[in-house]
Specification:
Chains A, B: It comes from Acrocarpospora corrugata. Chains A, B: It holds the Pfam family Pyridox_ox_2. Two copies of one chain form a homodimer. Chain A has five helices and eleven strands, in the order E-H-E-E-E-H-E-E-E-H-H-H-E-E-E-E. Chain A is an alpha+beta fold. In chain A, strands 1, 2, 3, 4, 5, 6, 7, 8, 9 and 10 form a ten-stranded antiparallel beta sheet that branches. Strand 10 of chain A pairs antiparallel with strand 11 of chain B, so a sheet runs across the interface.
């Protein structure tokens, strides 16, 4: 099968490692919201920023949320409209987020999130002050309930009668690329070189 | 402000036009799920495939869902960890999806979805049979309740005391690119040329 669910932990880890933005599904005042937010993953925990979600997640009764990480790999163009689709890798994680309040874990979690977005930045940038830490909502979600779906490969109708229609079919690859860093116009000194750790991230 | 909410309809339309995969938030058996799925947008309606969501959306009591479309434009690397962020464009649409059952609207909606993914494919590929139509769940969501958020530009701490730290700050642009079409290995005839409408999509 070209589209398959996976229960392989390595697939989950690879999908999480390949990104840094998830979509968080949460119920706020009775209404579902789907919020993009940055995350970082360790072997057993997904850390993510609370921001808007914190309105309902923090202090309110605990709820099960869904965090989805999706990578688009290709447009699947088949002979028939019906068989069109997307090559993708998707992980959905379910659980009840825990608000991180202790300073050591909060710093650890923020390091995970920061370095997932931009490896090396935690060691380079100015770290959070106590006041900044207090103003940051960080949530932790265990990685023990997850569902993974992956589709790869060509369209599914290559061995169907539609293959005789003389229509082109195949895949248009989709890739996410990182461009040349654009310095802040307010950079001091203005000609400060881009540090070596800020290279174009290599995300498989 | 570099991060702003927008009530400009043109911003919503531009975000929807720039993508073809949304994240659908829906409550299934009491649990939030966030599902990636393809969509297509007209002036007043977002059409999307039901697939997994149809389990709960179709036949069950109607519910308000949230459909989120997010584009990542850049990693914002500030002097301080606290000011790190993402340049992005995000639209969240709220509403109660309507299942499309009449054949003319279903064909119209599928055309919108198909051509949003790959412009021109509706006219090129074999269109759905009646049986395929019956096997397809298509949902329609009105575009009249939406929220848009956009962040652009450099980091926010260029005029803060942190600007004196001598740290590099700026933006790493993120772009989604489309590669050279990969023919299905089962293509007939094997050397069939890629049709001209399947060019690399131009998505601002």
């Amino acid at each position: 099968m070209k589209e398959k669910g996976s229960y392989d932990r390595a697939d989950l880890d690879a999908i999480l490692a390949a990104g840094f933005v998830c979509h968080l599904g949460v119920v706020v005042d009775g209404t579902v919201m789907v919020l993009p937010t940055v995350y970082g993953a360790t072997a057993d925990t997904l850390y993510f920023h609370g921001s808007v979600a914190s309105r309902s997640l923090v202090g309110a009764p605990q709820q099960t949320v869904c965090v989805t990480v999706t990578h688009l790999d290709g447009l699947v163009l088949a002979r028939s409209v019906f068989e069109h689709g997307i090559n993708y890798r998707c992980a959905m994680i379910y659980g009840t987020p825990r608000q991180v309040t202790e300073e050591p874990e909060k710093l650890h979690g923020l390091q995970i999130v920061t370095d997932q977005c931009a490896p090396g930045q935690w060691n380079y940038a100015r770290r959070p002050t106590r006041k900044e830490l207090a103003a940051t909502t960080l949530l932790a979600l265990p990685l023990n309930e997850a569902s993974v779906k992956i589709r790869t490969g060509p369209p599914d109708d290559g061995d169907s009668p539609d293959s005789q229609l003389g229509l082109w079919a195949g895949v248009i690859p989709i890739t996410t690329t990182y461009g040349t860093p654009i310095p802040d116009p307010l950079l001091l000194p203005p000609n400060l070189a881009v540090p070596s750790h800020i290279s174009v991230p290599d995300r498989p």
